[in-house]
Structure formats: structure tokens, C-alpha cells
Design brief:
It contains 15 helices and 16 strands. The strands form 3 sheets. Strands 1, 2, 3, 4, 5, 14, 15 and 16 form an 8-stranded mixed sheet that branches. The protein is globular. The relative contact order is 0.16. α7 (about 290-300) packs across α12, α8 (about 310-315) packs antiparallel against α12 and α11 (about 350-360) crosses α12 (about 365-390). The chain has a domain at about 25-80 and about 450-490: Urease, subunit C, domain 1 (Roll). It is α/β, with parallel strands linked by helices. This is Amidohydrolase family protein. Keywords: Hydrolase.
Length: about 500
Amino acid sequence: MLGAALSQPVSGQPALRSGLAPDLIIVNAILLSPERDAPLEDAWVRVSGDRIIETGSGPIDVGAARIIDAGQGFLIPGLIDSHVHLYHATGLRRRYSEDYEALYQDYMAQQPRSFLFHGFTTVIELNADAATNARFEAAPLHPHLVHCGQGVVLSDGFMALELGGEPVWDTYPGYLIDTHAAGLVPEGADIAAHTPEAAVASVLDQGGQCIKLYYEEALWWPGGAPAFRLPSVDIVRDVVRAAHAENLPVLLHATTPAGHAFALEAGVDILAHGLWEWTDQSFTDPQPSAEIESIARRISHSPIAVQPTVQTLRNTASLFDATLLEDRGWTDVVPAAYLGYLRGDAQAQRQHFIGMFGQMIAEGDEATDMAAAQSAFLNRYEDLIWEMSTEQARFLFGSDTAVGGFGWASPPGLAGYWEMQNWIEAGISPATLFRSLTIDNAVAFGLAGEIGTIEAGKRADLLILRANPLLDVTAYDRIDMVLLAGQPLERSVLSARQSEAAR
């Protein structure tokens, strides 16, 4: 039983190499950590404050420390979701609900706990909003938050289309002027304040630890998108140089062949999405063109890491999946009233989506036509991801929770668990998934000194699982306990059901 004290501690254990007295000791664990070649049986971990101070196996003198008996459970590092958006509430739109504000506030109050419920002790926000960050970190229990500050956008780029006519510089004061391509210089703007170096400095001033850029062609825009500028390769190379001078990784939002080819030319570090827009091909073509296969192969053989974010596509497909909202996991991650909204008023999204995008996707305009098309679309993308994995592509785990747009398949924490299942269904190995959720994400974002493995000196973000995640992905949904910076949390206290019962 977790938390049970050992009645007869075994003496004879050597003195602590760290010299620190432990507050807590986890015993009787099978330790899985990505830097190890094999599990460590009969393992123990000493924790002082928020730090791991020693690991080992066999007999141990526990002294006066608090004991957590893992009961031969699997002890793994806390998980990292490296692609989240904390300001979206999945499936919630003002047009569909008169209770928008109440639903939004209740959703956001539960959101941090829901990430923890599914083992995500660190989340990385790729386009941060200061007020949202403050709200998230003010929650009594919340994952550690790393962010990229605001996304670095062009003065006349795609993101301006998202602002409803408001000037992009009002929302993104650290915007970038693409001087290599005669980019827009707003009236009264000081070009020197909007150079790559200035944009990186702005992100640093916001506390950002990464840079997010955009190469969005908006090929999906009904009737064709209004005019906007794509970044030049020279301006992105300049941003990469400025970011690397500050030891910041650079991510690029891109989903098209042109965008991924651009990433190769510009030398970014991470693609925030996979290659899922197949230009000059039908939405339901089962196989990519030779050009797309070539680009995917080049990405796989390059230093660029990819966040597949399969769940982003499943978010749209959720409109046509009648079973999704019956998943038992919903009740642990969103309030009951919110789930009721998704099952009720939110369903109006389906016909709205068909009216806007139906002719672009399927020959028929019924929900069954859309469902079949979305299924084919997902199958071909997962096949491409599998092919990239066979070419040794570097994948980083990110869920894109909660992606905007149509659909409701992006609940906090649960969407991450679904993304894990997507990877396994696509043929990615459990070992690759495990590394991506832990050390690979930590290394890519400069966090490996703090998290990603179970080693002395690392932050004590740990999970105790009842099954081996290297054998079965469902082990990630069999969490007994979350340790957050050394604080033990029974999983049940993080559930939305318990939160509501305590009100």
C-alpha cells in the first residue's frame, strides 16, 4: 500500500554521499529512467525538499524519514508535454453557450490538476499569455510551467489574420519586421526595436525559454486566405542565430511541404507539427507524393526534431466520433457541467464545420462522409509518422492541448494520454515514447539539468505506476501517486470528480 511506513528499517546502509538528511524515501520500487539500460529492481530514492539526493537498491536505513512504499510499482520521471496552450478550453465557444464565462472559469480551475492527474509534471506553453501564465501558476497544485513567451510574429504575417482587424503590434508588441523581404514597417515604428535580436530579447524579458515562429500558409482557409506575408529564410536564420546566442531552441509552426522544406533551409531546431497538408493531393489520398516522402525523409535524417501532434488532427475528427465523449476519462479532467455542455450545446459545431469545410474534404456533405474522410486522413498521417520513425526521426512529445478550432478532443492531461496511444497505434515503440516524454523533451528545451531522469540533483518530479510503460501504453493511465517537487499526491485528489465533491 502506498504511503505505508516500513516497520523494521535495515541498518548498515552507507552514509549519504550528498550529506543531506532525507525528508522522504521511496522504497520497494522498480526504477525506470531513460539513462539506464535496464530497470533497477528493489530500488529506493531519497528526497530532500524538492530534490532527489540519492538512488540505489537493496537494504536501506530509513532513519526518521517519511516512507513511501511503492509496492513493486514502476517509478518513472514525471512526464513533459512540450506543446500546450493554456488559454484555450477545448470545444468552448461563446456562440454555442450562454454560460461561457462560468464554464471557462470552472474548466481553468481544474486544468492544472488534470495535467497532473495524467502525470504531466512539466508543461511547455509555446505562445504564452502573461495573465494566463499567472492564473495557472496561482493554482494550489499545478505542473511546472516553461514557456516561449509570445510567439514571434511578422508585422504583416499570418497571425495578424487571427486578431479580428486589431493591429498585430497591439497584441504582439515584440513583433518582427522582415527587412530581408521589404516587410511592413508600421507608421511610427522603430525598425531597430523589431529586429531578430530585439524579438529574442523581448521573449527573454517575458521569462521565455524558447522561441516560436510561424510558417502558416492557411491553405485550409475557405475561399483562400487574405493577403499576408510568409517569413523569408534569411530573417528566420537571423532569429535562429540570435536565439542560439542565448541558448534558446527555435520552434517553427509548419504543416505543409513548403513549410517543412523551409525549416530545413532555415535551420530551426523543432517543428511544432508534422507534415499533414499534402498540397496538390486529395484530402483522402492514401499515399503521399514522391515530393512529400522526400521532404519527410530529409527531416528524419536532419537534426530537426518533430512534434507529431496527432491529436491536433483528432480534435477535428472528434466532431464525427460519437464515442469520444463517452470515454470514462472525461470525468476526471473536466467538471460535470462542462462535459454536459460538450455533449449538448457544443454539438452545433458539427454542422457549422460541414458548412465551412465540407466541400474541401469529402464528396458528400453528411456526417458519415466527413467521418470516413477524417479516418482516411488520420490513417495516412500515422503511416507517414511510422515511416519517419523507421528513418530514425527525432520525435518530441507534445499534445497541442488545447488546440483551438473546431472539435473537443483536447482536454488537459487526457489529450496527452490519447496522444501517447496515437504514437503506439502509428507504430512508434514504447521505448521511443518513454524517452520523448522524459529526457528527449528535457534535452531539447534545455531542462536536462533539472528533469527528465531519476538522478541525484534532479527535481523530485516522479510517478509511481502499477504497470510497465515499456510494455503497455495503458500503464500511463495506471498512476498511483504523483510526486511534484517532492510533494506526494495521491492521484485521486487531482480528479475533477473529487474537486467537485469537495465544493
